[in-house]
């Protein structure tokens, strides 16, 4: 119904920016992403510095997993942001969060951490702000900042105890930082209970088993990972560690 009304309005006033933005948002809410993006682009063709259209285009690109393009539109939106505009003020907070996550999925971990830590510190709702902790923690892991990574991943699990990736990475960090092998293995094992087919988690758990001398337990997990071309080399290497630990040198 909203689409019909917006279209009627645009029949009378085809270049009405507010109607076009509203129509684009409605398309997005209906999961009609292509039409939404086309509509927002119509706004930008007329008004390249339209904050809301830039922000919404960023959301659309992010929904389509085009994270680099999403970053581009979010940054452009920030360049034209008007502090005295109430509507823009209302979405600035979410834009900062979305920019941080777009950087994360684009593997720009330093920038992701910078934006999301800033976003986290600006939130009044202690519970709601927990949703960004996994991204910060995993970013710290990739940036080789283990102590910070552990702190943020612990916060992430307080927010969502079933975050399989946070569990797996935190388990690895506990092993590396000698925070307790038993709890490390339990964390990685739980990640596999949640996401049993994720071979990255399987490799990580098997590596932990090798570190703890449980070579026999690691071998079947690693043999499963050999089936994946992406993880085959890592699986062969860890298998060699397992067989060396069992003193089966011919297999090494």
What can you tell me about this protein's structure?
- With 252 residues, the chain is mostly helical.
- The chain has helices spanning 2-12, 17-29, 33-46, 51-63, 67-79, 86-105, 109-121, 133-142, 146-159, 164-176, 181-194, 199-211, 215-225, 232-245.
- The termini are far apart.
Secondary structure layout:
Elements: H1 2-12, H2 17-29, H3 33-46, H4 51-63, H5 67-79, H6 86-105, H7 109-121, H8 133-142, H9 146-159, H10 164-176, H11 181-194, H12 199-211, H13 215-225, H14 232-245
Name some characteristics of this structure:
single chain, 252 residues, mainly alpha, elongated
In terms of structural class, how would the helical and strand content be classed?
A: mainly alpha
Number of helices: 14
Shape: elongated
Ends apart, CA distance between termini = 68 Å
Radius of gyration: 24 Å
Into which percent range does the helicity of residues fall? over 70%
Strand content: under 5%
Please sum up the structure shown.
With about 250 residues, this protein is an all-alpha fold. The protein contains 14 helices and no strands. The longest helix has 20 residues, at about 85-105.
């Amino acid at each position: 119904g909203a689409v019909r009304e917006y279209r009627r309005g645009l029949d009378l006033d085809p270049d009405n920016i507010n109607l076009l933005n509203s129509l684009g948002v409605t398309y997005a809410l209906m999961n009609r992403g292509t039409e939404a993006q086309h509509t927002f682009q119509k706004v930008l063709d007329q008004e390249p510095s339209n904050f809301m259209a830039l922000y919404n285009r960023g959301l659309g690109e992010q929904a389509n997993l085009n994270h680099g393009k999403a970053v581009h539109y979010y940054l452009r939106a920030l360049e034209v942001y008007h502090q005295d505009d109430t509507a823009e003020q209302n979405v600035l907070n979410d834009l900062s969060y979305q920019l941080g996550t777009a950087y994360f999925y684009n593997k720009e971990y330093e920038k992701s951490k910078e934006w999301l830590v800033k976003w986290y510190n600006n939130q009044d709702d202690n519970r709601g702000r927990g949703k960004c902790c996994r991204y910060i923690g995993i970013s710290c892991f990739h940036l080789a900042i283990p102590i910070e990574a552990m702190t943020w991943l612990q916060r992430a699990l307080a927010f969502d105890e079933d975050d399989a990736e946070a569990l797996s990475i935190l388990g690895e960090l506990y092993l590396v930082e000698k925070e307790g092998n038993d709890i490390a293995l339990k964390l990685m094992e739980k990640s596999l209970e949640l996401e049993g087919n994720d071979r990255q988690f399987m490799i990580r758990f098997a590596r932990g088993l090798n570190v703890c001398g449980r070579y026999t337990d690691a071998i079947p997990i690693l043999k499963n990972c050999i089936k994946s071309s992406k993880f085959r080399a890592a699986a062969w290497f860890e298998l060699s560690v397992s067989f060396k630990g069992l003193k089966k040198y011919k297999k090494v």
